[in-house]
Amino acid sequence: MREIDYTEIVKAVKEMVMDTEYRLPEDFIQAVRSSIDEEASSLGKEILQEILLNAEVAQREQVAYCQDTGYPVFFVEIGQDVRIVGGSIKEAINHAVRQATKEGYLRASLSYDPIFERKNTRDNTPALIYFDVVEGDKIRIKFAAKGGGSENQSKQAMLKPADGLEGVKRFILQCIANAGPNACPPFTVGVGIGGTFDYSAVLAKKALFRHIGERHPDPRIAALEEELLNLANQLGVGPLGFGGTTTAIDVKIEIAPCHIASLPVAVNIQCHAARHKEIEI
User: Fold this and answer.
1) Are residues 74 and 137 both part of a single domain?
2) Boundaries of domain holding 113
3) Best label site of 17, 54, 92, 95, fewest CB within 10 Å?
4) Cβ-based neighbours of 79, under 8 Å, separated by 6 or more
């Protein structure tokens, strides 16, 4: 049994959160660079270049890329041969988020009471944490700063099995079209198909962590990702919604078994501030 100290987790997660807020992922940066040459709109090209410039400034100056520092979302895989000493991993992650928010000068974006008072928690906690127990003696932590604008444009639907593949495609493309400029394109689009009402949305958010261009191992799903990406970029939304051919940077799909009477589909839109990172302890 391997022991990992609470303070080691706090330190690693704090650094991860701050670095994620300051630095767009390299695969996304490269995808934006590639899109500039392919973008049909001159204004679209300028916007994509501005995105790269903003990313460069944020990284160099160590400031948040976007003022919306997002809802902190974590997917944590805990090895079954790991024992946390000195405290719980849940509290360690929240402790790290509180420190990162203060030391990194990150905007506090969470409201504790969603309906009545909507008071800010002032430290971006409690984080949303999904846990999974896996083999081994390590902890793998994935973090995403999920901005409110793109999250607001995400949708879930309980389609009928008879709607089939075409119904699934229609729903996904309609979600992207409806998001328009409100979710700050070019988007990364996470899609969850199958499972249950709630799990399809988890799958969609989890899909966003895959690298740009990393295709699903099932060739049929991989082909569907490519098809949806091409169709999304024919919608004309374009960078920041000003028109053009770069509406989506990628479409990523995760699937799960579902009830014979159900066809759950969730679409989680991620704005161009595609801030995510993973570490292993």
Assistant:
1) yes
2) 2-20+65-146
3) 54
4) 2, 133, 134, 135, 136, 137, 138, 139
